[in-house]
Amino acid sequence: MKPVRYVFHVTMDAFYTFLADDGWAIASHIALSTLMAMFPFVIVLTSLAGFFGSKDLADQATALMFQTWPQQVADTVSGQIHDVLTTTSTNALTIGAALSLYFASNGVEALRVALNRAYAVVEPRRWYWLRLESIGYTLVAAFSALAMAFLIVLGPLILEAARHYIPLIVESNEQILHLARYGITIAALIAALFILHAWLPAGRRSFLQILPGIVFTFVASLVSGIVFGEYLARFANRYVTMYAGLASVIIALVFLYFIAAIFVFGGELNAAIIKSRLPRGVSLQAAQSLKPAETQA
Fold first, then answer.
1. Are 197 and 270 in contact (CB under 8 A)?
2. Type and span of the H or E element at 219
3. Structural domain includes residue 287
4. What is the pTM assigned to this prediction?
5. Among 3, 15, 36, 49, which is most buried by a count of CB atoms within 10 Å?
6. Domain that holds residue 159
7. What are 261-297's pLDDT values in tens digits?
8. What letters, b where the CB count within 10 A reaches 16 and e where it falls short, cover 38-50?
9. Measured between alpha carbons, how far is 174 from 107 in angstroms, rounded to an integer?
10. Residue 100 to residue 93: CA distance in whole angstroms
11. Domain for residue 1, yes or no?
C-alpha cells in the first residue's frame, strides 16, 4: 500500500503546487506564445531551406511538426501556414528572417518561465544571454527539422535500394514512410523534452530527476491528442457556430492550452518527486543548485 500512497501524495503535491504557481495562467501564456511563434518559426525554416536550395524541405519539416497533432487541428493550422508561405515573397523571407527568429524564440522563453516556476528556481542569468540561448534553441530546432525532413525525402530512394536486395521484406513504401515519419516525430519530441527539462530552466537536475515528468508529458500529450481529435470529430461545428472565421485559430489554441498544461504539470511532478526525496532541512531550490551527488549526501 505504501507505493500507492506515495504516488497519491506526490501527485496531489504536484497538483496543488501547479495551482499555487498559477499553472493554468502559465499554460495559457505558453499556448498563446507558441501559436504566435509558430508562424515566424516556419518562416525561419523556409528561409534556411531556401538557403540550402530546396524549399520543399520546409514543407516536409512543417508536415513533421504536425504529425502527432489531431488531424482536425493539424489541417487547419498547416493550411494557414501554407497560405502565409505562398503569399510571402522570397525577399521578405530573407529580410525578415532575423526578426522572425526573435519572435519564434518567444515560445522557448515561455517554456523557460514555466519550468523555472515549476522547479522553484530563481533565474540568475542575464536576460540577453537567455534570449540568445532561446534563439540558439530555435535555430537548432529548425536545422533538426530540416535534417529529419531530408531523411524523409531520401526515404523512397533508400527503400528502392533495399527492395533491390531484399524484395520480400520491403513491400510498401507508403506504409513504411508513414511509420518512419511518425517514429521520427516521436523521437524528436522525446529529445526536445529532455533538452527542455535538463538545460532550459536554472539549476541542475539529473537524468532520473527529470524522467518522470517527461514520461508523463509524452504519454499524456499523445492521449490528449487522441481524445481531443475524437471530440472535434463530433463537436467541431460548435466552434464554427461560436467563433465563425476564428474557429480554426481557437481550436489550435485550445489544443495547445491543454498540451501546455500537461507540460507544466510534468515539471511540477518532477519537483514534487525531488522534494519528497530531500533530506530534512534541504530546500528544493538549494537541492537544484548542487550536483546530484552532493544532493544525496
1. yes
2. helix 207-243
3. no
4. 0.79
5. 49
6. 6-277
7. 999 999 999 999 988 887 776 667 666 665 544 444 4
8. bbbbbbbbbbbbb
9. 33
10. 9
11. no
